[in-house]
Amino acid sequence: MESMISKILLHNWQRKLVALLTAIVIWFFVNSSMNETVTIPNITVRVINLPADKTIQGLLPNGILSRRIALTLSGSKDVVADLEPGDLEVLLDASMAESNEWVVVVSKKNLISLNPSIDLARNIRQVYHSEFVIRLSRLITAKIPIIIGPPTGISPQGYEILDIWPQRLMQSVSGAEEDIHWLADEGLEINFDLSEISKIELDTLKSSKRSDEVSFPVPAKWKKVAIPFRSNIVEDFNDPEAQNLRIDFLRKDLIPLDKEIPIRIFYPLVDLDKVNPQSYSLALNDEIQSKLGVPFFSKHLYVAEVSRLFVDVVRNSIEIVIVAAPKNQRKVLPWSIQFIQPRHLEDTYVSYFIASTSNSKGIKDVLPKEKEELLRKRFRDYMQRMTLFLTDEKKLHLKNTIEGDQIKVVAY
To answer: Cα dihedral sign for 228, 222, 198, 395?
Structure first.
């Protein structure tokens, strides 16, 4: 038997060696012609088995990293040549990381086919990539302020926005320590679009107590915020106060003042030697009358740009003030609406507001300090923009001039 094997191997061994070498060369060329090497960019990286107290910057809730990797793949030509980034992903096991500075080595075992028709295990032979380091960070949770920014869009016809409450919420966010600290400094901001609110919605919300101040409850679909370090993935508000989120509107309407307004002349001390009560007094006429020595504007007036509650509070504490000036300085004297004891009026407004929101048992709500400040700001805004009207379409204008030794007032 041994002699037979020796005879087979050694008989014409030169020719057999040449034949073997030729076969190896042919196999090499054939195999090379059937393989191809390509570089595929932007391949998704998914991480599993992260320690409970660790995370990675840019890690999305589904375990995918926001950063991608480029791989150079070598394998069967008919498969590799047609591969696209969406056909595969890299799956990394974080339990294999030996330190927080995880130097990742991707092999064919880490490749997951996302295309059922592609068998990567059989058709990929080698994987190459540049240095890929993943840093494991401490996982922390913090409350991030959500600032309710100025709304966009236009209020529904016949309404004007007053304010939004609460103006600030806190969102509990978990993530890498570096991302959370950055986000805590930056905060989150959202802006509501008023054009998405219809007039019909506000009309149906009119309160019987304050029919011109309407609170629109912000719908759940608006209560979402984008988290920047998670590729702006949107998540729901998780602050319990978000359930109270609402936008307050003022229904535009003319409100009868139903009260005469006192009118007086203010004489600046700087010009007192030229213009004073002894040299120029207020002229009385059909519009300017006097009661027990106090002049008042007798025409029936309406008020706009404010609420009925505001009018009820200030009705008896407003006056028209005309600023006197020498005739050579001003031909027409300026005028304005003044409020007597504005701080007291402001306190009264807030008290009335609380009383009007008492619960069914008559127990008054205790307003948070921020809410009280918002109401006080609303009151001050009302004082700034309150406008007097003579009729539904005619705003009150006064022409105040010095004629002879009198200051004459004409309403038009």
So the answer is: negative
Enumerate residues 6+ apart whose C-beta is below 8 A from 297: 260, 261, 262, 263, 287, 288, 320, 411
Q: How many Å apart are CA 92 and CA 67, to the nearest integer?
A: 14
Name the DSSP class of 362.
S
Token pair for 21: 């070498």
- Structure pTM? 0.77
Mean pLDDT throughout 224-240? 94
| Nearest Cα residue to 396 out of 252, 212, 263, 307 | 263
Strand partners, 160: 250
CB 81 within 8 A of CB 124: no
Give the best-scoring range by mean pLDDT among 71-85, 211-225, 333-347: 333-347
- Within 8 A by CB and 6+ apart from 228, the residues are 183, 186
CA distances (Å), 87 to each of 82, 111, 117, 119, 193, in order? Answer: 10, 10, 10, 11, 40
Residue 339 — φ and ψ, nearest 5°?
-110, 130
Amino acid at the residue 108: K
The amino acid present at 340, given as its one-letter code, is I
Q: What is the mean pLDDT of the chain?
A: 90
Residue 360 to residues 80, 144, 211, 248, 357, Cα–Cα distance (Å): 73, 36, 18, 22, 9
Residue spans per domain, the chain: 36-130, 144-251, 255-411
